[in-house]
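2024-03-11 09:14:02 DEBUG pipeline.ingest accepted 1 chain
2024-03-11 09:14:02 DEBUG pipeline.ingest length=159
2024-03-11 09:14:03 DEBUG pipeline.predict start
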Amino acid sequence: MTRERPTSRAISHASSGFTLIEMLVVLAILAVSAAVVPLAVGPVRERTLLARSSAALADLIARAHAAAIREGHTTRLDVDLEHRTVVLAGTSQRIRLDPSLDVFLTTAQEVGRDGRRSLLFLPDGTATGGRFRLSIAGGRAPGRSLSMSWLTGAVSRER
């Protein structure tokens, strides 16, 4: 019994690779995946930025409140909305808020001539109170709010 060997033409045709249709299907899948990924990643990045910024702000407010009670004198937190900085007066403790954030501040005092506002913390634990609102213009992630109680100086986070 003799076995026939496949011809070189049969071998080359069987292992010729992918067809044009298969390649187009793969490219279409890749294109759809590339279009969907930024839509999914954008809100995650926004939420992370908002969470990180509100946590840093809440931490600085808590430090100012604790310093007033510990040191026994009024402590001031200076907020410059134009330059997006929040500074614990008399110290090097500061945070710089991301330029993509919209920052709104409601306080008991009017904005000064230089565009700055201050939150005051008194030695008895009370404060002037205020509310920060952080959001991203045109963003899909919900904004974050920080409220500072005038009675206790405590900070509460809100959505």
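2024-03-11 09:14:41 DEBUG pipeline.report The CA atoms of residues 56 and 95 lie 7 Å apart.
2024-03-11 09:14:41 DEBUG pipeline.predict end
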